[in-house]
Design goal:
This protein is α+β, with helices and mostly antiparallel strands. It contains two helices and six strands, in the order E-E-E-E-E-H-E-H.
Length: 124
């Protein structure tokens, strides 16, 4: 017989672009709260409830084992690496939609790559 288990984890993330949780239980409820103001929810399971504001977001997922093959893929609750694709999860992306510094840096990198490419072909 399955027993309910409540788990609370507080994470301070730095440099993370997304966070994913696999629904391996019989009845999965996941609640996430963050001060991140620009979440993007992805993968097969979207939150049933969500609130997004400039102060952050709250989201709640509810996924039954009947809606996922995560238990079959990970029967011991451990992710195995291999050729088979990973099971669908409950995903939140934490990417800044418009970051002028990142766009500027990306432009500088591509400019340097282009200049190096042009110089190389001039020498040939």
């Amino acid at each position: 017989m399955d027993k309910a288990m409540a788990v609370g984890i507080k994470l301070n993330l730095l440099g993370m672009e997304h966070l994913s949780v696999l629904p391996v239980g019989s009845d999965n409820t996941l609640k996430r709260s963050s001060t991140w103001p620009h979440p993007s929810f992805a993968d097969a399971f979207l939150p049933r409830e969500k609130t997004i504001s400039e102060q952050g977001f709250d989201a709640t997922w509810r996924v039954s084992s009947l809606a996922t093959d995560a238990q079959a893929r990970f029967p011991w609750g451990v992710a195995h690496t291999g050729a088979a694709p990973c099971a669908a999860g409950m995903v939140v992306n934490l990417v800044d939609p418009v970051n002028p510094a990142a766009l500027s840096e990306r432009g500088e990198i591509w400019g340097a790559v282009h200049r190096a490419h042009v110089r190389r072909h001039r020498l040939v």
